[in-house]
Amino acid sequence: MKRRTDAIIAIHAALIAAGVIVLFPFVWIALAAFKTQISLTIGEVLFTPTLANFREVLTSGTSDYLANYRNSAIVAASSTLLVLAVSTLAAYSIERLAWPRWMVHGFLLGAAVFNAIPAITLVGAWYVGFRALGLYNTYLAVILAHATLNLPIGIWLMATFIREVPRELEEAARIDGCGTLQMLVKVIGPVVMPGIAATAILVFIHSWNEFIVALNLTARQTATVPVAIAKYAQENETKYGAMAAGAVMSILPSLVLLFFAQRAIVRGLTAGAVK
Amino acid sequence: MKVSKPARFWTLAPALLLFAAVALAPIGELAAMSVSQIDWVRGHAQWRYVGLDQYRRVIADALFRAGVVNTLIFAVGGVFAQMILGFALALLTTKVARGRVLYRTVFILPILVPGIVIGAIWKLMYNFDFGVLNQLLGLMGVGAVDWLGNTATALAAVIAVDVWHWTPFVFLLMLAGLESLPQDVYEAAHVDGASLWDELRFVTLPLMLPTIVVTLMFRIIVGVKVFDEIYLLTGGGPGTSTEVVSYTIFRRFFTEGQTGYGSAMSVVVLFALALIFVVLQATTQRRAAVA
């Protein structure tokens, strides 16, 4: 029995060590956000915390951080709604509306192949195309791009969740004369709500975090948070403090979701991978 | 069950429309641009047909070749380390009763953070003058290392960042897989006197194979796309030591404004990866079916 307790303690020690390795870099950047540039560059460990970096990022005339935050929120929320609507319809269609098998397989394979392609290979074409349409530097361009990039994962997740809905439920509703739209809103929707929430959170975070599309399709007015953070890091002299403050504030939405919706996040990340 | 034909079409139409307009049409546009020399004169594109010239340049491009090699090393090396570490951590977690949810919460965090923030974090950690890694080395009396500025360490350093970033994702999927395994098989193995090693080798691994394969595919796909961290940490340097294909395309298309040439490179990468994906998908599905 003693040996067993020792083993458990050793396992906890290993897991705690891994946890420290995961958390320490976050603690480090959070501390950096409260240091002055001088304190940072001389590598002070004990320091007097200051809000100067946050003040610079949030209120200085050269910083658009609050506008970037608003832009990120608009883009992420809109693209998430678009993905949810389109992917729920598509997933229901391929799962339940008796398409020929080859059609379903072809559609899913196409979506999976598209998902395997790096976004940067399409960004050039989007840049030229959206420019020609007068959509460069508009929310719509980034929203459409983000929605399309996340559509495969949306369809994949929603199909997984809809597959679990008992068919009897639909048959009963169908006999009562329920149409397709009604069926989705009144029968399927409520049953797969946890799945929709999981998909929504995942797609929102993807869009919120996305950098390469936002970098190339936006200019100052529509730039998102990751673009702003990269700018602090890329200026002639890296503004480490501002970069850290911007980074810390950018992960707040994810932290909130992690604490209040962890179950949904885990469901979204693991659905389809584990049978 | 009887289904109305119109319902079938209008439910799938939005997805097809979005893919056609924002994925297929741009791919067509890329193909058209890739056989052209495009010069921007006062904001207007001047197209000139050049046949396959741009593709010939792609194949001969030393930067592109370095990018392909580094992307392979990055994806394969990083994912390999993540799979081993993630699986080991998940296995350990299943052995403890207390604290599982807490461990999981901590380990999920990096998965949810923007690549740019991951880059920012490690830009601070790796800094030559005041990075915490060099400070720790200093405490141990070892000289500072220019982690990102040295051709010997730069690629390994960015791979380490990727391992730190994504091991938690592998952990999460492996943990979910392990928790869903049937317990009676383990009881039977225990009754038969199987050692822990036998249990892992003959029970856990075979049962986990489908989850392992899916996780591997997820990770390789995302690994090959790497861009954000490279953009922030090294810009592909020093020399070409951390150049990756996404970065080369970005550089040629956007930084240098070579629209036609960047398009040809995009087409090459796009179709190569699509092909590799289809082949991998076909072979792994057969494997998973056998197991």
Describe the structure.
- The complex is a heterodimer of chains A (275) and B (291).
- Chain A is globular and about 75 Å long.
- Chain A has helices at 2-33, 37-41, 52-59, 65-96, 101-116, 120-132, 139-163, 167-175, 180-191, 193-209, 212-217, 225-234, 240-250, 252-260, 262-270.
- Chain A has 2 domains: 2-52; 63-270, MetI-like (MetI-like fold).
- Chain A has 275 residues and is an all-alpha fold.
- The model of chain A has no long low-confidence stretch (mean pLDDT 93).
- Chain A contains 15 helices and no strands.
- The mean pLDDT of chain B is 93.
- In chain B, 73% of the residues lie in helices and 4% in strands.
- Chain B has one domain (38-290): MetI-like fold (Orthogonal Bundle).
- In chain B, α2 crosses α12 (259-290) and α3 (62-94) packs antiparallel against α9 (196-224).
- Chain B has 12 helices and 2 strands.
- Chain B has a two-stranded antiparallel sheet.
- Chain B has helices at 5-34, 53-60, 62-94, 100-108, 115-126, 132-139, 154-179, 183-191, 196-224, 228-233, 245-255, 259-290; strands spanning 36-41, 44-49.
- Chain B is mainly alpha-helical.
- In chain B, β1 (36-41) and β2 form a beta hairpin.
- Classes of the chains: A mainly alpha (275), B mainly alpha (291).
- At the A-B interface, α1, α4, α5, α6 and α7 of A face α1, α3, α4, α5 and α7 of B.
Number of strands of chain B: 2
- Largest interface chains and counts: A-B, 101 and 92 residues
CATH architecture title of the largest domain in chain A: Orthogonal Bundle
Strand percentage of chain B: under 5%
Largest sheet of chain B: 2 strands, antiparallel
Classified in CATH, the superfamily of the largest domain in chain A is MetI-like
Which blocks of ≥5 consecutive residues of chain A have pLDDT under 50?
none
Q: Could you estimate the helical fraction of the residues of chain A in percent? A: over 70%
User: Ends of chain B: how far apart?
Assistant: 34 Å
* CATH topology (fold) name of chain B: MetI-like fold
Summed over residues and divided by their number, the pLDDT of chain A gives a mean of 93
